[in-house]
Amino acid sequence: MLLARRGIYSLLLLLQVAFCAVQFQSPDDLQGVEYDFIVVGGGLAGGVVATRLGENQGFKVLVIEAGPSNDDIFASQVPGLEPNVTMTGTRVDWNYTTTPQIHVNGRVDPYTRALMLGGCSSHNGMVYTRGSRDDYDRWASVTGDDNLSWDKNVPIVLQGQPLPNPNATGHYDPSLHGTHGNVNVSAPYHVHPPNDLMVEAIKELSQSSDEFPALLDMNGGRPIGMGWDQDTVGGGLRSSSATAYLAHTGDNVHILLNTRVMRIMPPTDDHTSNEHPDGTDIRSIEFATSPTGGKELIISGGVINTPQILLNSGIGPKGELEALGIKSLIDNPSVGKNFSDQPTLFIGLSTNLPVDGFNMTAALAEWLGSHTGRLADPLHMASLGWVRFPTTANPFKDGSPDPAAGPNSPHIELYFKNVTLIPGQETEMGDATLLMNIVNLHPVSRGSITLTTSSPFDAPAIDTNALAVPVDTAIILEGIRSVQRLFSAQTFSSSVFGLVAPKADVNGTLSDEAVIDYITHNVMPDLHGVATCSMAHHGADWGVVNPEFKVRGTTGLRIVDASVLPFIPSGHTQAPVYAIAERASEVIKLSWK
Ligand SMILES: Cc1cc2nc3c(=O)[nH]c(=O)nc-3n(C[C@H](O)[C@H](O)[C@H](O)COP(=O)(O)OP(=O)(O)OC[C@H]3O[C@@H](n4cnc5c(N)ncnc54)[C@H](O)[C@@H]3O)c2cc1C
Ligand SMILES: *[C@@H]1O[C@H](CO)[C@@H](O)[C@H](O)[C@H]1NC(C)=O
Ligand SMILES: *[C@@H]1O[C@H](CO)[C@@H](O)[C@H](O)[C@H]1NC(C)=O
Ligand SMILES: *[C@@H]1O[C@H](CO)[C@@H](O)[C@H](O)[C@H]1NC(C)=O
Ligand SMILES: *[C@@H]1O[C@H](CO)[C@@H](O)[C@H](O)[C@H]1NC(C)=O
Ligand SMILES: *[C@@H]1O[C@H](CO)[C@@H](O)[C@H](O)[C@H]1NC(C)=O
Ligand SMILES: *[C@@H]1O[C@H](CO)[C@@H](O)[C@H](O)[C@H]1NC(C)=O
Ligand SMILES: *[C@@H]1O[C@H](CO)[C@@H](O)[C@H](O)[C@H]1NC(C)=O
Ligand SMILES: *[C@@H]1O[C@H](CO)[C@@H](O)[C@H](O)[C@H]1NC(C)=O
Ligand SMILES: *[C@@H]1O[C@H](CO)[C@@H](O)[C@H](O)[C@H]1NC(C)=O
Keywords assigned by UniProt (predicted)? Predict the structure, then answer.
């Protein structure tokens, strides 16, 4: 049963004294200040919501972020230094790993999540893809809210602002982009041999097949074909929710850094009952909003931490929580369930194309001088490919339903990384490897985020449940076949010489069994997780939030982040999360007009 709770939620905070840096502000400093809105998590979505609410000068908004300011993290500013901030185990990472994946040979991977202002928009790969029209229309139909449909979202999506870089002409369609949005979006213009060869190969292949159409702009709602990547970069700088939103707020928006919210509770709750391990560097305090000043609490901790905070607070599957000794506040079996992330894996092709190396010292000096050069763009290649399989394709021959959201949606992304030297993989034909990722965009398998103990200090179990459903593997297998068809173009005959990972046998053949073996050892999460606090329609018997982003069975509590998206989009997630956060901001503002 869902217990209706009225009134203002209060917060229990953990101060991590280890983070005590110049920006550290004690919550004590906030005593006496009455906030209208408290946003937990200054990440991608939290940064948008706090900024939009703060546009009303009458509102006082507090953002509580567990990590430091992005300003302190130099590599977060420089697009080409992305690998330096996304590697696991840095001081701006939550250091999560997945549970052993039983369908991927027990594989365990890092599940990187940024721990700094801007969240993952301060460290991600910067690829800007909106997904397909069908993705948004499916969210609208699952939630019963037509406001989530593609047509209703386009005006919001146009917040993205591609810079009119003269070198990018022909790399995107200006009519699909805004001119005054917050986030800088640019089309890369680096000249690199594989990019030019790809254009030639597409022309050649389109004579005989419709598998790889040329695509001028992949952000028009039908991302099927081969085209140019767009990135959240402007003027050689990463553009994030911290730089594009939070940096431009008035002084009615306060940001409390290095402060982690452990759980939320009604003010009357007896919060001394939950035990915390002792630790000299750690102390817990209660931080309560004024009963008369507070309007709402908004949780934006992201796809892992938002369900974790709810579960810690007793909002979740009653039986599971009570088994851990956590008092149930609101019984909701959907919290943390339905976790969806795209399975991806690296493949490599033998090539004699020049290695994509550069002199880091010189490149850094150039960037510091003028924000130009190799580090002014992300390091991945400028080509991106999206393949939609016909309904008669191999993955669907056993009757498996098409998992994509509709006919405008691709099944596979081809994400070209770089040409690099991999020791031990030199071949007679070429000594370098063209590295790429194959991404299954619409996994059917669903995983979960669950608590392992009653301590809010412990990381939750992150189970992507990758490849649990056979069609997920079959789609990746067909994706690798698709790559073989792409690189069989005559255009590549003197430069790209076939797969080295997975590797063909001595006869040059690569059996389905060998490819499946490669897949079931190498699949990793693409770090695009959604759906752990899914939105469902009003009155649904599942889901965590309603179409107003309100947590079922509560008042005064909403969730705004990637966790509310019920299905993963046909692409990378940041553009849809920007869109949903803008949508939520409008909904919240309207309700307090
Ligand atoms: C390595 C990597 C590469 C990626 N590359 C791309 C890409 O190229 N293109 C793309 O479109 N998408 C990419 N993504 C995905 C995209 O960045 C995310 O989908 C998006 O940032 C999700 O936004 P969010 O607001 O839900 O969560 P986040 O951006 O993760 O923000 C959550 C914030 O909440 C804070 N927080 C969490 N718990 C607490 C707590 N208890 N108390 C206080 N604060 C808390 C966190 O520190 C964080 O700042 C990538 C993701 C990763 C990890
Ligand atoms: C980025 O990482 C590379 C490789 O580890 C290292 O050589 C370089 O010094 C780092 N740069 C910065 C600015 O941290
Ligand atoms: C992740 O590991 C790094 C390096 O040990 C550390 O600085 C950081 O605090 C860790 N993150 C968390 C959330 O514990
Ligand atoms: C959709 O948005 C409009 C305008 O913002 C609003 O009037 C309407 O109530 C919304 N519909 C739903 C189902 O939320
Ligand atoms: C355009 O490309 C040329 C040649 O690669 C380069 O020198 C120039 O800096 C680029 N212009 C911009 C605005 O990036
Ligand atoms: C966007 O790019 C312009 C110049 O190209 C730059 O001045 C501005 O700071 C950038 N904005 C963000 C949010 O990165
Ligand atoms: C998972 O999502 C589906 C809809 O996609 C829903 O029917 C089901 O009830 C959800 N499961 C849980 C545990 O919320
Ligand atoms: C190329 O990609 C690989 C794998 O991601 C990485 O290890 C390597 O550093 C990259 N090289 C360059 C020059 O970007
Ligand atoms: C890299 O660039 C620096 C600075 O320009 C230079 O001193 C160094 O010799 C270069 N290294 C190589 C290997 O070319
Ligand atoms: C591969 O070639 C070898 C040697 O010619 C032959 O013995 C073997 O049967 C071939 N394997 C396949 C699968 O064709």
Answer: FAD, Flavoprotein, Glycoprotein, Oxidoreductase, Secreted, Signal
